[in-house]
Amino acid sequence: MKFSDFPPKTLTLLGTILALVMADDLTASEQGNLGNFLMLVGQALVTNSGFLQTQQKLHNEAINERLKKLEEAVSKMQNL
Fold it and tell me: Residue 6 in 3-state DSSP?
C-alpha cells in the first residue's frame, strides 16, 4: 500500500498521535526545534513536487504539439 492510498483522516490522526507520543519525551524547546525541522522537510517536498509538476506539464504540452503536427501531416498526405 502506498502512502497516498491512505485516507486523509487516517493520516491526520496518525500525525496527531505521533506528535503527542513524541512530545512526552521532549522539552518545549526540543519540540519546537523538531517541529520546525519537520516543516522544513515538508516545504522542501512541496517545492520539489511543484517543479516536477511544471516540468511534466511542459513535457506533455510538447508531446501534444508534436502529435498535433504529425496528425496534420498525415491528414495532408491522405488528401493527396
Answer: coil
Residues 68, 61: contact at Cβ < 8 Å?
Answer: no
Structural element, H or E, at residue 18: helix 8-23
| Average confidence (pLDDT) per 10 residues, the chain, 80 residues | 88 94 94 96 96 94 94 88
- Long-range CB pairs of 57-66 (<8 Å, 24+ gap) are none
The total domain count for the chain is 1
pLDDT at 10: 94
Cell 500525525 locates to 15
The residue range of the domain holding 48 is: 3-78
pLDDT number for residue 4: 84
What angle is formed at CA 56 by the lines to CA 54 and CA 59, rounded to 5 degrees? Answer: 110
